[in-house]
TrEMBL record:
Signal peptide: none
InterPro entries xrefs: Interferon-induced_GILT (IPR004911)
Annotated organism of origin: Massariosphaeria phaeospora
Name of the protein described by the UniProt record: Gamma interferon inducible lysosomal thiol reductase-domain-containing protein
Keywords assigned: Glycoprotein, Membrane, Secreted, Signal, Transmembrane, Transmembrane helix
Chain ranges passing through the membrane: 24-42
Gene Ontology cellular-component annotations: extracellular region
Family recorded in the similarity comment: Belongs to the GILT family.
Annotated compartments: Secreted
Recorded superkingdom: Eukaryota
Pfam families: GILT
MF annotations from Gene Ontology: oxidoreductase activity, acting on a sulfur group of donors, disulfide as acceptor
């Protein structure tokens, strides 16, 4: 993939609030929502970023952790989701504790994030995190994310967001509220937490698939690599089913 170069070369000019910088801070988040026509209206409810990991008591303890780390404007992320992740989730989502995380680099001086493909990628990441926060069912937010990724060059055009939201049963206004909450700082916090998680797990390749808290497969430069147990959906489904059966046996 095109992430082999460091996200933040030491030679990169530090211009915190210039539009040409790849840094995306809470100030940029607010500015971009205005530019894109995502006019915000304050709401009284919160969109908690951990909703995607809340669950009922019915079999929750046996679900298998499956986490996918991507960048929203990365063609490898699109292909990885399309060829592996989405087909797997379509078949076995009820046995998976799914999480979508993002890759970038946090910046200390303005509590922001730098994204490999610029500020528009940061905004795309926030959109997809807001979808997961507002619609914690992976069938909804993963479908929306896949729709966005299939047209990643257009991220974050409003027409793309509206079309993908409509196609997958999401309300554009709810995504808008989440993104613009606290003048963009809330969505920025979601992204910063997600990027920090990927960094803490030493994940830097988009796309990285982690199963049961271990790296299961990478998709890099247009091909699957380091997939010792196979890179086809049936291979990952098999591994998930095995882990699920084992966990279920232990919990009984």
């Amino acid at each position: 993939m095109d992430t082999k170069a460091p996200l933040l070369p030491n030679t990169e000019a530090r211009m915190p609030r210039r539009p040409i910088s790849k840094r995306f801070s809470r100030f940029h988040a607010a500015a971009f929502t205005i530019i894109l026509g995502l006019f915000w209206l304050a709401r009284t409810w919160d969109c908690h970023h951990d909703h995607q990991h809340e669950g009922g008591d019915d079999g929750w303890a046996t679900k298998v952790p499956l986490e996918v780390h991507i960048m929203s404007k990365c063609p490898d992320a699109r292909d990885c989701l399309e060829m592996l992740v989405v087909p797997v989730m379509a078949n076995i989502s009820d046995k998976v504790d799914f999480r979508l995380s993002f890759i970038g680099e946090t910046t200390d001086e303005d509590d922001g994030v730098q994204c490999m493909h610029g500020q528009t990628e940061c905004l795309g990441d926030i959109l997809e995190l807001c979808a997961a926060s507002e619609y914690p069912d992976p069938k909804l937010y993963l479908g929306f994310t896949m729709c966005m990724e299939q047209n990643y060059e257009q991220i974050p055009k409003r027409t793309l967001i509206e079309d993908c939201a409509l196609e997958h049963g999401l309300e554009f206004d709810k995504l808008n509220d989440c993104m613009s909450k606290e003048d963009g700082a809330y969505g920025m916090g979601l992204l910063r937490d997600s990027v920090q998680r990927s960094a803490d797990l030493n994940v830097s390749t988009s796309c990285t698939v982690r199963l049961n808290d271990e790296i299961r497969c990478l998709y890099d430069n247009g091909e699957f690599v380091d997939c010792s147990s196979g890179s086809k959906p049936k291979d990952l489904i098999r591994d998930i089913q095995k882990l699920y059966d084992e966990a279920k046996g232990w919990s009984e």
